Backbone:
């Protein structure tokens, strides 16, 4: 099946780390599967300790564009690196929406992450009305041009691109296998095969196997179902 990434985005939810980690680590029996946990900032220190003797890697959910300075309440990529992170999600649609983040901001965040040796998980995806207007490919292409293309020359093999149709996030609606394949093939054509491209949006244990079996899908970014240790463990099993 090729190497697959299964990434948990806990969003603004607090979970019981030891119980989750134990169930997930037990499911991780295949070297060809990487699991990444992105908890809230306040759980990073505890997560670093709990994940220490497991193969599960640590990530965060956002970082600032600057490495330090007068930015009350913000967190820099350097701080995340020091907290044991290897990954950071940037440009999630919830942040683009609620915090008015533009593709330019997302690029700067990805660059800040890469400067610290963190791999950015760069989220892109279209709205439902854009898909209805047959604009999905144009929207995603534009996001890649602005937020991803400038990174490719130096960092193609260090970035993860997460295709997350916004209408599929937290809704239980999932694009068809054909729609996922079409978009992933377009993205791969634009960025090349060195970059990892994962799918996100209502991934659950019962649809994960079919999605993960696609050659153009290098993994999944999981929100809601990642809060349930058994559900997330079963998604990992579906990647094996
Ligand atoms: P969901 O979230 O799995 O709950 O749809 C995915 C995401 O927002 O990354």
Residues:
């Amino acid at each position: 099946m090729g190497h697959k990434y299964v990434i948990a985005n806990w969003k603004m939810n607090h979970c019981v780390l030891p119980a989750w980690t134990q169930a997930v680590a037990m499911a991780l029996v295949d070297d060809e599967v990487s699991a990444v946990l992105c908890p809230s900032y306040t759980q990073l220190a505890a997560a670093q300790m709990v994940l220490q003797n497991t193969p599960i890697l640590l990530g965060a959910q956002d970082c600032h564009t600057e490495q330090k300075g007068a930015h009350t309440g913000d967190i820099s990529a350097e701080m995340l690196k020091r907290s044991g992170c290897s990954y950071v999600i940037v440009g999630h649609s919830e942040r683009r929406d609620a915090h008015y983040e533009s593709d330019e901001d997302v690029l700067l965040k990805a660059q800040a992450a890469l400067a610290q040796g963190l791999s950015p998980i760069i989220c892109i995806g279209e709205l439902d009305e854009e898909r209805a207007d047959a604009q999905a490919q144009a929207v995603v292409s534009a996001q890649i041009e602005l937020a991803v293309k400038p990174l490719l020359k130096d960092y193609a093999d260090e970035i993860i691109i997460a295709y997350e149709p916004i209408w599929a996030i937290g809704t239980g609606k999932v694009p068809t296998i054909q729609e996922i394949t079409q978009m992933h093939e377009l993205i791969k054509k634009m960025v090349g095969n060195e970059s990892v491209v994962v799918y996100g949006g209502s991934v659950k244990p019962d649809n994960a196997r079919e999605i993960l079996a696609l050659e153009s899908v290098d993994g999944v970014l999981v929100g809601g179902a990642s809060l349930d240790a058994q559900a997330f463990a079963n998604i990992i099993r579906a990647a094996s």
